[in-house]
Amino acid sequence: MDADPTDLYGLTRPELRSLVEGWGLSPIHADTLWSLLYQGLACSADQLAGLPARVRAHLSAQTRIGCLPVVAGTDSGDGFTRKYLLGLADGERIETVLMRFTGRVTACVSSQVGCAMGCVFCATGQMGYRRNLAPAEIVAQVVHVARALGPLCGTRQLRNVVFMGMGEPLHNYDAVMKAVEILRDPNGLCLGAGRITVSTVGVVPGIRRMADEASPVHLAVSLHAATQDERAALVPVARKWPLDELIDACHHYCSKLGRRIFFEWTLIEGKNDSADHAHAVGALVLGLPAQVNLIPLNPTPGYEGSPSRSDAARRFQRILAEDYGLPSTMRQRRGIDIAAGCGQLAASP
């Protein structure tokens, strides 16, 4: 049986050079190919005209450019958000979101088809876990967003990538970190480590591994509750990695890397938005160099909760700042009307 073709998006630049050298060709062709893929944003063999015919022949026979077909694209009424439903080779689908802000664009990418973490208010968690994405399938999402911006501005305007789409990134650790390496290559998309954020629901071994391997990207931890019982009710994986173990891992991360950590808190009316909850958060993360990102709950079909009222949200934020000196931001809502917001992605048109 013939081997499946190598997906070029899944190769780091050194791996691509080794592949080309293995064909008995000069590594200079690998550098040209890399530039065509990530600066020229080539998506087919027809767009590789800068390479000699013999190189293109090897590429055609043994590799592919794994561009993901658009099953559906939906624009939000806010004018700043576009959600893509992208097809995978095995028939599965994932969602990727392009979000525009002043002078920049953020790509929100998926790391899995579905998710095994089961957070009760998350549409991806409600659909269950299908499989991990390969590094090439992750990189292809970012390239897709850059290409959607246009060949002249895509690699300039695309400044941030957040692993906050479908799936738990630290449940697919190796693939995510290899994709990060590819995205950061200075001769490619050249995304700075400070522009990439990996969000986890609390996979403790992954947090510790990021610390021990000195991962250069930002870490965001979805907290949502400040007691073990309340957190386990919202985030079932807390039964496997209890809150005290999670916070200990966060201390390890911050002390090892000397870096700030971000905590995400979905504000749910009557569930986790009281003054007592705000005080509990402040006490829990005391001593950590941290920032809290407050996210009003976004609607999903499988959860009946409501977002906190604006007065409750402001009170929560005020307590964090005044009583604990803890900085926080209120997440700008993007694409809620097209189910493109935090917790809403579910591989549906």
Word description of this protein:
With 349 residues, the protein is of the alpha/beta class. The chain has 2 domains: 6-64, DNA polymerase, domain 1, CATH 1.10.150; 70-338, Aldolase class I (TIM Barrel, Alpha-Beta Barrel), CATH 3.20.20.70. Helix content is 35%, strand content 20%. It contains 12 helices and 14 strands. It has helices spanning 13-22, 28-38, 53-62, 123-127, 135-148, 154-157, 173-184, 204-212, 228-234, 243-257, 275-284, 310-324, and strands spanning 6-7, 63-64, 70-75, 81-87, 93-101, 104-108, 112-114, 129-132, 158-163, 196-200, 218-222, 261-267, 290-296, 328-330. The strands form 3 sheets. A 10-stranded mixed beta sheet has the order 3-4-5-6-9-10-11-12-13-14. The protein has a two-stranded parallel ribbon with strand order 1-2. A two-stranded antiparallel ribbon has the order 7-8. Strand 12, helix 11 and strand 13 form a beta-alpha-beta unit. Helix 11 (275-284) runs parallel beside helix 12.
List the helices and strands and how they pair.
Blueprint (H helix, E strand, L loop, with lengths): L5 E2 L5 H10 L5 H11 L14 H10 E2 L5 E6 L5 E7 L5 E9 L2 E5 L3 E3 L8 H5 L1 E4 L2 H14 L5 H4 E6 L9 H12 L11 E5 L3 H9 L5 E5 L5 H7 L8 H15 L3 E7 L7 H10 L5 E7 L13 H15 L3 E3 L19
Parallel strand pairs: 1-2, 6-9, 9-10, 10-11, 11-12, 12-13, 13-14
Antiparallel strand pairs: 3-4, 4-5, 5-6, 7-8
CATH architecture of the largest domain: Alpha-Beta Barrel
Average pLDDT metric: 93
Shape: elongated
Number of helices: 12
